[in-house]
Amino acid sequence: MINSLKITLSLLLPLWFLISFQTKSMAVKNINHKIVLKHPGEDIPVEVTLVEVQDSDGLPIAYFTDVESVICLEQVCKIVSVRIYWNNIGVYQKYELENGATLEKYEDDLFDPEDYKKLHTILANIDSPYKEVYLDEILTVVDEHTEDIDAVSGATALELDEKDTVPGAALTCFTLWHWVNGDIVSIIKNKTGESVSNKQLQQFLVDENETYFYIAIAELQKRKNYSKEFIDTIIKRGLKDDFLLRTAFNYLKGASVENYLYAAETLFFKGSREQKLTTTRSLINTDYKVSKGYLNNFSTQFSKLDYQEVSLLLELMQDKNPNSKVVIENVLPLLSGDFIIARRAYWFLNNETLTTKQEREIKCFYKKHKDKL
Asked: Could you name the domain of life of the organism this protein comes from (predicted)?
């Protein structure tokens, strides 16, 4: 039954993982990592051996570790060794039992084939209700006849939908779910980043799965690698996927001032709305000294921006480029456009040092719109 279980679970794995693992299995090497994990059901941290599986290029392709099937506080449980597998970004893939081993439910009831499949589904669900369950909720059980607490034979007081648990095996589900989805996930990501080469990090930066991007950025920061080659790749990714911009700028703020400003300018002028907003926020918050000429160039875009973009860019100019003649000249035309934008431009200009002619322009604007200012 166990051998058939392994086959069944393997069929549930992503095809790319199986192909990758099988085609490279002849050229893999295993690296053992001693790591310490905190499980919410354990009083003290537990040391385990996390095995990193690398292909012939040194790229991590999988991880696995052996854990106990259940946290047993009453010393009456049957404990089975369970081997858990993840891919190289910490996504659970499958579990395996030793030949002949079986998982049990309370009252010595054995898992049936459907229970094993359901357990796999539970472990693969990162948002499982077990994420919020406490061990005490599982150990507190009530005898249906006497209402006395009976931690061994009674039904658990924990109430979960049947689809979310294996009936009679809540403790096993809880134990294994937290081994699968706990601290070890971030550890795997860190180990993957540490193991790969700079060339492989370049590939991570452009991978469609953004998790690889986050791993690459974190590792580049650790390595203090801010080369132009990486920055150009990050810029291209930031232009394509705006949800990665905050992470990208968190990396870019560690680059040299020249490379930071180059990236900011490229993202602003080549990007769309989100790139412009994120770049402007970064320039407002940066500790780098930014020249007036550099900022003046941004002001040429006012006529192409919406209200939020204009307002944020004016905040940048007021903070880091006040009283710039170039900026003032580029803001003045906004007074004759969309009123919401014009009103924001008026209040900006009202705090700037203007020529006599420019002062007359904003006074005219004030007289015309004073009831709406």
From this structure: Bacteria
Q: Phi and psi (nearest 5°) for 126?
A: -70, -15
Hey, what are 219's tokens?
Answer: 């590792």
Classified as helix, coil or strand, 149 is strand
Residue 64, token pair as written in the block: 């696995």
Contact in structure between 324 and 299 (CB atoms under 8 Å): yes
Q: What is the pLDDT along the chain (373 residues), one digit of tens a residue?
A: 444 444 344 434 444 444 344 444 445 899 999 999 999 999 899 999 999 999 999 999 999 999 999 877 666 678 899 999 999 999 999 999 999 999 988 776 899 999 999 999 999 999 999 999 888 888 765 555 544 433 333 355 577 888 899 998 999 999 999 999 999 999 999 999 999 999 999 999 999 999 999 999 999 999 999 999 999 999 999 999 999 999 999 999 999 999 999 999 999 999 999 999 999 999 999 999 999 999 999 999 999 999 999 999 999 999 999 999 999 999 999 999 999 999 999 999 999 999 999 999 999 999 999 889 8
Within 182-324, where are the H helices? 184-195, 198-206, 210-223, 228-240, 245-252, 257-270, 273-285, 292-298, 307-320
User: Which tokens is 108 given?
Assistant: 């010595």
The C-alpha torsion from 331 through 333 and 334 to 338, rounded to 10°, is -170
pTM of this structure: 0.85
Distance, C-alpha 254 to centroid of its chain? 20
